[in-house]
Amino acid sequence: MEKKFIRFKLAEEDTDLIGWKKSLLPRTFNETINKILVSESNGEIARIPYEFSSPEVAEETDASFYVDDENVLALLGGIKRGGRTDAIKGIIRKHIQYNRENPPEIVSVDLLYGKLVDFRMKMAAREAACAGVENKYRKLCDSYYDGMVTLFNTVLAAAYNSGDEKGCDRGLRQLDVDRIINQAFEENFGPQRVSDEDE
After folding, report:
1. Which of 101, 117, 150 is the endpoint of a domain?
2. Helices (DSSP H) in 42-135: which residue ranges?
3. Cβ atoms 12, 60 nearer than 8 A
4. Rounded to whole angstroms, how far apart are CA atoms 38 and 58?
5. Over the stretch 89-108, which tens digit does the pLDDT of each residue have?
6. What is the span of the domain harbouring residue 93?
7. Do 11 and 93 share a structural domain?
8. 5 φ, ψ (degrees, to nearest 5)
9. Is there a contact between 36 and 46 (Cβ–Cβ < 8 Å)?
10. Largest CB tally within 10 Å, which of 32, 33, 41, 172?
11. How far apart are CA 86 and CA 119, in angstroms?
12. Burial, 159: exposed, middle or buried (Cβ in 10 Å; 0-12, 13-18, 19+)?
């Protein structure tokens, strides 16, 4: 299914949504909006970033995203004509409010720190193995960014989906740093070649 481009405006009075949008990590607005709308179309609540500060003065700004999920398209298609922008804003506010009222469990600092150190060391090792690759710097930056976003979202999921601190710790222990890094590098450098020694 082809992606559908959706555009809507955040007006001056939408200071909360403008502040929320600015608080998101770069290049994650589309992913976050899709997560919200997919959850909404399934009668669920998306676990999303919810802490932000609203600007005292905000200017009207455009917001846009792509969507290709059939349930989301059906959800948006069922909104009465002329009401889509207000409906999207209402859905976003609903999911932000839920996350504010039901924050995730606190994660174990030692476990989280260990995963971050592991991620950094293994990324550095992969960087050293990329000598001579065309457009190395750009691909490394993209790989690092993609890996960090996946790592961040996985940590959030471990916290949000657990019923208590022990459950969160279990989720962190199962976090596969190698898989995250391999996926990020494969997306930006292409499939990893297997040498004769590895076969």
Report:
1. 101
2. 70-77, 84-101, 109-128
3. yes
4. 28
5. 999 999 999 998 987 766 57
6. 4-101
7. yes
8. -90, 125
9. yes
10. 33
11. 41
12. buried
pLDDT of residue 126: 83
**Which residues, including other chains, have CB under 8 Å from residue 117's CB and lie 6 or more apart?**
none
pTM over 0.85: no
Q: How far is CA 118 from the centre of its chain?
A: 21
Number of domains the chain is built from: 2
Q: Are 60 and 7 in contact (CB under 8 A)?
A: no
HEC readout, 29-60? HHHHHHHHHHHHHCCCCCCCCCCCCCCCCCCC
- pLDDT, one tens digit per residue, over 34-68 is 999 999 999 999 988 888 888 877 889 999 999 99
